[in-house]
Amino acid sequence: MVTEINDPHSYAKPSESVVKHLDWTATVDFDSKTITAKATLTLENATDAKNVVLDTKMLNIEKVTLGEDEQPTTFILGEYDQFLGKSLTVEITPETKYVNVYYTTSPEAEAVQWLSPIQTADKEQPFLFTQSQAILARSWVPIQDSPGIRFTYNATVTVPSNLLALMSAENPKEKNETGTYHFKMEQPIPSYLLALSVGDLEFRELGPRTGVYAEPSVIEAAAYEFGDLESMVGAAESLYGPYQWGRYDLLVLPPSFPFGGMENPRLTFATPTILAGDRSLTALVAHELAHSWSGNLVTNATWDDFWLNEGFTVYFEQRIMEKMYGRDYSEMLATLSYQGLKEEIATMTADGMAKDTELKLSLKGRNPDDGMTSIAYDKGYLFLRSQEELVGREKFDAFLKDYFTSNAFTVMTTEGFIAQLDEKLYKKNGLVMDKDNINAWIYGPGLPENGPVPSSDKFAKVDDQWTAFVGGTPADKLQTEGWSSHEWLHFVRSIPEDLSLEKMTELDKAFGFTKSGNSEVLSAWLEKSITHQYEPAYAKLEDFLVHTGRRKFLMPLYKELILTDAGKIRANAIYKKARPNYHFVATSSIDALLGVKQ
C-alpha cells in the first residue's frame, strides 16, 4: 500500500485503495467534442477496504462495475468544487481487483483542446491535445489525480482513420487504415503525465531512440530544429545516469498549446514558438528532456513540493546546455532567468504575495497552477546551484546521480529531500549542513543574500553597445555581429523606460525586431512597444496574441496592456478574438487578469 500523503488537491485515499494500473478503451469524436471511454482500474487494497475514491471533473459517469465479470456496485459522486471537481466513491471489498468506469467527457473538459482545421498549421484536419498538469487529468479520465500516486497503463484508442493518435507511451510512427491504435506504458507514472494527441501528423527519425512528430507543413523545420536531440540525450545520461523510458520523441503542437513544453514520458509536447530556424531556443528541449529524471523519474509528492520537479530540472537543463555548448552559453541562459526571477519576486512582494516566493508552497484551497511561477523553476535552480558551489561540483554530481537512481519511480517531499541532502551529501562527505541557510532558501521569502548570481561576459559586451547607442552611436553602427538570440534578448530587455519613440523607430529599422522570427525576442520587443506606445508594432502585437497560446508570452503582454485605459480597450478587443484559440490553462489565467466572466 501507499504511505498516506496529504494531497490537498485530490480526493483519493490511497492508504485504503490505490490504483496501480489503468486499461483505457476510448473513442474520440470530433463532431461532439467528446471522448467515450471505459477505464478499468487495477487496485491494491487495504485489508479493511470498503471504497476506492477517484477524482473526476465534468465527466458523465454512465455506470460502474466490478471485476472481469462486470458485477454491479454502488457509487456516489460528491459535491462539485471549482478546482477539484467531484469525488467518485465506489463501493468495493478488500478482494476487489478491478473497477470499470464507463463514461463520456464533456466538450468543456479542461484538459482537452479541440481545434478546428483553421486553428492548425496545415488548416485541413482537426486536432486534439490534452494538458493534464497540474490536476486536469480528472477531466478526461476518472483516476486518482495526485502526483504522489503512480500507475502503469495500456490504452486502445479509436480516431478518424485519416488521423494519427499518440500518447505518453509506446507510439506508432504512421497512420493505419482502421484508426484504432494500441498503447503501452510499462513504467509507472503519475496522472499528470497522462497525455493524448490526435491529428494529421508525420514522423521523422532523428536518432536510434529519438524522433519528432509534427503536421506535414512543419515536419521538415521541426526535424532540423531538433537535430541535436540524440546528442542531448547522451549528454544528459553522461551527467546523471541512464535514460529509463525507452524512446524520447517530440510532438510539435499547434500554436494554442499553453506551455513551452510538457514532459509527457516518451513524447514531450512542444510549442511551435521554439521553431526559430537556428536551433537557438532548444534549451526548452533540454528542460523537457531533463524532466525524464527530475519529475518523471522522481516526482514531487504534492503540488506544494513543485520546486522539486522544476528547480532540479532547470539545474539539469543548465548542465546539459553547458556540456553541449559551453559555460559562456549556459551562463547567458542562467542570467536571463535570474533577471526574470528578480522581477517576479519584486512584483509578487509588491502585490502582497511574498509567501508565494517561498520554495515550499501552501496551495490548499487554491488552483495548483498558482505555484507555476519562476520561483519553483529559477529560485529552485539557484538553491541547487548554491549547494553545488558550497560542496563542489564533483560531490554534488555524485549526490544527484544517486538521488535519481535510488529514488527512481518514487515520489519525494521537500522534507524527504532535505533529509537525503543532509545524509547523502553532507554527512557522507564529512560536512555539516547549514540548516539555517537551507531553511532560508526553502521556507523563506525572496532570495537569500548569499545566493549565487549568474553573470555573463557576453552580456557585459551587450551592455557596452547600449552605452554606445545612448551616447549617440547610430543603431546600424553598433557592434552586433555574431550575437546569439540570447544576446539580442538581453539587448531588448535593456531598453529603458525613457527611450524616445525616435530611438525605438531607429532600433526597429536597424534590427527588424517587429519582424523577428524568434518568439522570445519578439515577445520582449512587443512588451517594450506597449510600454513606449510604439504604434508600428501594434499590428504585430495583435497577430502574435491571436495566434500564440503560450501563457509565458501572453500574461506579460496583457499585463502591460492593461496599465493604461487605451491599453485595456485594446487588450479586451484582442482577447475577444484570441480567446477561442487558447487552452483552458491560458484562459483561466487571462480571464482573471482581465475580469472576464464566462
Tell me about this structure:
The protein is an alpha+beta fold. It has four domains: 1-197, Immunoglobulin-like (Sandwich); 201-289, 2-Layer Sandwich (Zincin-like), CATH 3.30.2010; 298-443, Neutral Protease, domain 2, CATH 1.10.390.10; 484-594, Serine Threonine Protein Phosphatase 5, Tetratricopeptide repeat. The chain has helices at 219-225, 229-240, 283-290, 306-325, 327-350, 374-391, 393-406, 414-426, 435-443, 457-470, 485-493, 501-511, 519-531, 538-547, 551-561, 565-578, 584-594, and strands spanning 17-29, 34-45, 51-56, 60-66, 71-72, 75-77, 86-91, 98-104, 112-115, 127-130, 150-158, 164-167, 180-190, 196-199, 202-207, 210-214, 248-252, 261-262, 267-270, 298-300, 410-412. The strands form five sheets. The chain has a seven-stranded mixed sheet, with no helix packed on it. Strands 15-16-17-19-18 form a five-stranded mixed sheet, covered by helices on one side. It has a four-stranded antiparallel sheet with strand order 9-10-14-12, with no helix packed on it. α4 packs antiparallel against α5 and α5 crosses α6. The chain is globular.
CATH level 1 class label of the largest domain: Mainly Beta
Overall mean confidence score, pLDDT: 96
Give the strand line-up of the largest sheet. Answer: 5-4-8-2-1-11-13
Number of helices: 17
- Low-pLDDT residue spans: none
Shape label:
globular
Counting structural domains, the number is 4
What is the terminal-to-terminal distance? 42 Å
* CATH topology category name of the largest domain: Immunoglobulin-like
Major sheet attributes: 7 strands, mixed
Number of strands: 21
Fraction of residues in helices?
A: 25-40%
Strand content range: 15-25%
